[in-house]
Design a protein that fits this description.
Blueprint lengths: L2 E6 L2 E8 L4 E8 L5 E3 L7 H9 L9 E3 L5 H4 L2 H7 L4 E5 H11 L5 E3 L4 E3 L4 E6 L10 E5 L4 E3 L13 E2 L4 H12 L13 H9 L5 E3 L5 E3 L2 H16 L2
Parallel strand pairs: 4-5, 5-6, 6-7, 11-13, 12-14
Antiparallel strand pairs: 1-2, 2-3, 3-4, 8-9, 9-10, 10-11, 13-14
Helix pairs in contact: 5-7, 6-7
């Protein structure tokens, strides 16, 4: 059964743990005048996710469906949500909309340019284009400016059925998980190129207070330092 935790004001982490692979899949509902769901989870998660969202809002009121990049755990059940919530729209970057979503989805996406803001009521989310960070040409992240919450997708991926929110550094957890991937068939999970470090530095300069992590614990504290630590881990494990 999914677990729900409020990690920042009106930002709820909906976590589904899959013990067979020791991994949490965390989706985030932002409750506002125009509610936004960041990542849908796998298509098979939809019944459980619908039930979880119904504990927070009327699911048919969902207005926006965001994600980082085109992948099954990011937007696998997008069309089920578009069917359930008649006013809902996918929201993504220009590349994601043109290359993937406007062909895949039941109706066209709202496409945002880099640094363009989306107001959903009291909260405003800024779209940050991050090509190939964590992966995919279409990758991008959303930053909730009021309470300074960065929706990080796979950036801080670490395995295990861990606590919903921590103030402890995530660097060691991320290093262990990433090294495990690089030593097996999932090598290349996170690409590393000449622009990676600059993108991470730019994200750090947002100085987020909360990092909403898709796989593993979310983080509360000095987000700038946390992203700088992650950049060091990526350089160490991937930059070789």
């Amino acid at each position: 059964m999914s677990k729900i935790d409020e990690i920042a004001p009106d930002i709820f982490r909906i976590s589904i743990f899959v013990p067979q692979i020791e991994m949490q899949f965390n989706q985030f509902l932002i409750r506002d005048d125009e509610p936004l769901l960041f990542t849908t989870g796998l298509k098979a998660f939809f019944p459980e996710m619908r039930e979880a969202v119904a504990r927070l809002i009327d699911p048919t009121r969902l207005r926006w469906i965001g994600f980082s990049h085109f992948e099954s755990d990011e937007c696998g059940s997008l069309n089920q949500w578009l069917e359930l919530a008649p006013q809902s729209e996918a929201v993504t970057g220009f590349v994601g909309g043109m290359v993937n979503i406007n062909d895949f989805a039941l109706r066209p996406a709202r496409m945002l340019q880099h640094n363009e803001a989306l107001s959903i009521g009291k909260k405003q989310l800024r779209y940050i284009s991050t090509p190939h960070v964590p992966h995919g040409w279409d990758a991008g992240l959303f930053y909730e400016e009021g309470d300074r919450t960065l929706l990080t997708s796979d950036l801080f991926h670490h395995n295990g059925d861990v606590e919903p929110l921590t103030t402890e550094s995530l660097a060691d957890r991320c290093r262990e998980t990433l090294k495990g991937f690089e030593q097996g068939p999932l090598a290349g999970y996170i690409p590393y190129n000449s622009k990676t470090d600059r993108i991470l530095r730019d994200l750090a300069e947002l100085r987020p207070k909360t990092l909403a992590t898709m796989h593993g614990s979310s983080f509360s504290g000095n987000g700038k330092k946390a992203i700088e630590e992650l950049a060091e881990v990526w350089q160490e494990v991937l930059g070789g």
